[in-house]
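4.2 Preliminary Data

To establish feasibility before requesting continued support, the project team ran the inverse folding procedure on a target of 220 residues. The structure was first converted into the token representation described in Section 3, and no sequence information of any kind was made available to the design step. The complete token record follows.
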């Protein structure tokens, strides 16, 4: 069993042997124990599709609609979900690396033991995304994204770009936001209730408080 530790979070990840996997390209096939490389699923409608124990490498899922189904025990690398609509998916025990979610709409997504590393979520919309277990974002671009009614308690964000990330009615209690710049977040302070910060982030937090409370700060 492969694990990754981010901050105090231990994430269970898949350990796949490429030699044990079949080559797959058609999303209507059995998507278990396979390698799906450079396949084009652009603009497809994927209803209740489940991918298990597989590697997705360079797959084009952009502008697609994927409703229900799941990703379980998968390694997802350099895969393009730009402009896709993902709804009602369960994503568990997955390592997602160098993938693009630019402008993606993720709604009612359940995450458990998921590591996003070096991924782009700029202009993405996350609505009612829930962490049912360990979730981490490392070196990810989250600029101009919107998180609405998300429950990502105990999640870890490390070295992420958060400029103009908008948080609305989110529950992040216990989330570890150390190592990120918070100055340009678009959020009410209530969305940060119970998060963990480091001392270097306190000036950013002060800036957010001054903005939310419409304070006027003047020199004597």
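Position-by-position output of the design step:
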């Amino acid at each position: 069993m492969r694990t990754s530790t981010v901050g105090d979070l231990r994430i269970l990840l898949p350990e796949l042997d490429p030699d044990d996997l079949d080559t797959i390209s058609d999303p209507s096939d059995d998507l278990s124990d396979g390698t799906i490389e450079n396949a084009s699923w652009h603009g497809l409608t994927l209803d209740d599709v489940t991918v298990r124990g597989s590697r997705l490498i360079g797959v084009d899922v952009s502008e697609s609609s994927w409703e229900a189904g799941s990703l379980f025990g998968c390694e997802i690398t350099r895969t393009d979900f730009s402009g896709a609509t993902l709804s009602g998916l369960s994503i568990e025990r997955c390592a997602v690396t160098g993938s693009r979610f630019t402008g993606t709409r993720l709604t009612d997504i359940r995450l458990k033991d998921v590591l996003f590393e070096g991924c782009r979520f700029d202009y993405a919309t996350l609505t009612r995304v829930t962490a049912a277990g360990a979730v981490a974002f490392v070196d990810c671009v989250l600029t101009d994204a919107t998180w609405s009614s998300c429950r990502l308690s105990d999640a870890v964000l490390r070295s992420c770009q958060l400029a103009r990330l908008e948080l609305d009615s989110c529950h992040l209690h216990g989330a570890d936001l150390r190592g990120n710049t918070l100055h340009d977040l678009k959020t009410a302070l209530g969305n940060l209730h119970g998060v963990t910060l480091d001392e270097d982030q306190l000036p950013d937090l002060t800036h957010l408080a001054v903005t939310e409370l419409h304070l006027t700060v003047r020199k004597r």
